[in-house]
Please model this.
Amino acid sequence: MKVFELINFNRELLKKLQDAGIRLDDARYIDLYSDYVDMYQQGEKVSYIVAALSEKYAVSERKVYGLLKRFQSDCKPFAV
Model:
């Protein structure tokens, strides 16, 4: 299957995700956010969680804070 064929086949879903304000690149950080939720529910402090996840996933702390903010935000209302 060619890249074009795959995109064309999923274009409606991709368009809805884009309209909702979701970046396709964020899919690679789903595990990071799941780890954040688990650690937060266990009572860890946010600054500790961010530092630990930054090291574990080899991204900057600023990136982790940005991802957390984006993943916790609501989708754009007109898109859903």
User: Anything to note?
Assistant: The CA atoms of residues 21 and 76 lie 6 Å apart. The mean pLDDT is 92. The radius of gyration is 15 Å.
